[in-house]
C-alpha cells in the first residue's frame, strides 16, 4: 500500500518539482547556448551527487534492516527518487504488478479487469477482460488509467501492448489507444473529495465541465453531456431503480433518461436507448492527490 503523506501540500509541492526544474532550465536558454549548457551541467552534477549519496544510504540501511526496502518502495517520494537513480529495490515485474493492483478496484467499478502476461525488456503485455459492452469509451477510460499507473511505476517501459482476451480483435486497437492516451493530461481535483454520499456536483476542470457523484465511498466522474438527449446534466440527481435491486442511477433532468453511474454510465432504460451512455472520465488518486484525466484537445482525429 503506497504511503500517504501527512501533509498534502508538501506532497503536491514535490510532485511538481520536476516541472519547475525543467522550467528553470528552459528559462536559462535566454542567456544563450552556453548559459543553457552550464545550467544543465549543474543540474546533472547535483543529481549525480545526491544519487551517489542515496545509493550508499540505501545499501547501509537495507544491509542492517532488509525490511526497509519495502518501506522505501511504499513511500511515493522515496520511490520516485529511487527510480530516477535506478536504485528501486523491486524488479520491474513487481512494480508493474503493484501498479495494476492499485487500479484494479477502479477497473472493477467499470466491470473490467487486467492481467499481466509478461514483461519483455522495455515492453509490457497486458490482457483486459470484462468492461461495459454497451460503452465503447469505457475501454479507453480503463486502459488510460492502466497506462498511467504502469508508466509511473516503471518509467523504463517504452511500449504497452494489449493482447486480445479472445481470438477476435482487441477491445481497442493498440495504436489508437496509445494515440488517445497521450492526448490526455491529469488535473488535481481535491474538491471532489468533499462530495457527500448521494451528492452530485458540477466542476470546471481543464476548460471542461465535469459531473461527479459519490455512491457509497466511491467517486465517479462523467462529461457534462447526457448520452441520450445530448444536453447538459446540470441539476441531475441520483435515484434508486425500482424493481432492480435498488441500483443507483443518474437521471437526466431534461429527457429523464437513466444511467448506471457505477458501471461506466450505461443507459438502463428499455425504450431503445440501450446504446446511449455517459462518457466516463478517469478519476484516480495519484500519489495521494485526487486527479482526473481530460483530453488536452476536445476532439480526437
TrEMBL record:
It comes from the Bacteria. The keyword Nucleus does not apply. The keyword Oxidoreductase does not apply. Residues 186-292 form the Rieske domain. Keywords: 2Fe-2S, Iron, Iron-sulfur, Metal-binding. Gene3D superfamilies: Fe-S cluster assembly (FSCA), Rieske [2Fe-2S] iron-sulphur domain. Pfam families: NifU. GO terms for biological process: iron-sulfur cluster assembly. InterPro entries: FSCA_dom_sf (IPR034904), NIF_FeS_clus_asmbl_NifU_C (IPR001075), Rieske_2Fe-2S (IPR017941), Rieske_2Fe-2S_sf (IPR036922). One of its GO terms (molecular function) is 2 iron, 2 sulfur cluster binding. Belongs to the NifU family. May be involved in the formation or repair of [Fe-S] clusters present in iron-sulfur proteins. This is Rieske domain-containing protein.
Amino acid at each position: 500500500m503506497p504511503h500517504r503523506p501527512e501533509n498534502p501540500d508538501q506532497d503536491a509541492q514535490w510532485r511538481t518539482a520536476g516541472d519547475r526544474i525543467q522550467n528553470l532550465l528552459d528559462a536559462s536558454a535566454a542567456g544563450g547556448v552556453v548559459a543553457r549548457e552550464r545550467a544543465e551541467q549543474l543540474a546533472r552534477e547535483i543529481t549525480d551527487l545526491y544519487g551517489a549519496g542515496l545509493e550508499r544510504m540505501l545499501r547501509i540501511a537495507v544491509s542492517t534492516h532488509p525490511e526497509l526496502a519495502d518501506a522505501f518502495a511504499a513511500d511515493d517520494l522515496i520511490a520516485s527518487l529511487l527510480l530516477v537513480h535506478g536504485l528501486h529495490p523491486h524488479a520491474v515485474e513487481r512494480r508493474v504488478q503493484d501498479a495494476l493492483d492499485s487500479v484494479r478496484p477502479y477497473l472493477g467499478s467499470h466491470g473490467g479487469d487486467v492481467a499481466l502476461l509478461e514483461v519483455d525488456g522495455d515492453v509490457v503485455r497486458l490482457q483486459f477482460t470484462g468492461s461495459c459492452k454497451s460503452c465503447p469509451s469505457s475501454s479507453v477510460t480503463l486502459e488510460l488509467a492502466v497506462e498511467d499507473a504502469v508508466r509511473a511505476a516503471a518509467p523504463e517501459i517504452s511500449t504497452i501492448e494489449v493482447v486480445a482476451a479472445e481470438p477476435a480483435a482487441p477491445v481497442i486497437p493498440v495504436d489508437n489507444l496509445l494515440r488517445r492516451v497521450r492526448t490526455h493530461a491529469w488535473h488535481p481535483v481535491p474538491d471532489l473529495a468533499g462530495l457527500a454520499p448521494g451528492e452530485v456536483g458540477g466542476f470546471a476542470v481543464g476548460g471542461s465541465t465535469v459531473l461527479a457523484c459519490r455512491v457509497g465511498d466511491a467517486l465517479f466522474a462523467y462529461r457534462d453531456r447526457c448520452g441520450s438527449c445530448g444536453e447538459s446534466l446540470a441539476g441531475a440527481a441520483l435515484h434508486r431503480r425500482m424493481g432492480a435491486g435498488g441500483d443507483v442511477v443518474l437521471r437526466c433532468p431534461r429527457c429523464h433518461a437513466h444511467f448506471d453511474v457505477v458501471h461506466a454510465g450505461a443507459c438502463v432504460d428499455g425504450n431503445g436507448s440501450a446504446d446511449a451512455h455517459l462518457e466516463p472520465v478517469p478519476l484516480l488518486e495519484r500519489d495521494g492527490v485526487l486527479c482526473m484525466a481530460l483530453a488536452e484537445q476536445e476532439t480526437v482525429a
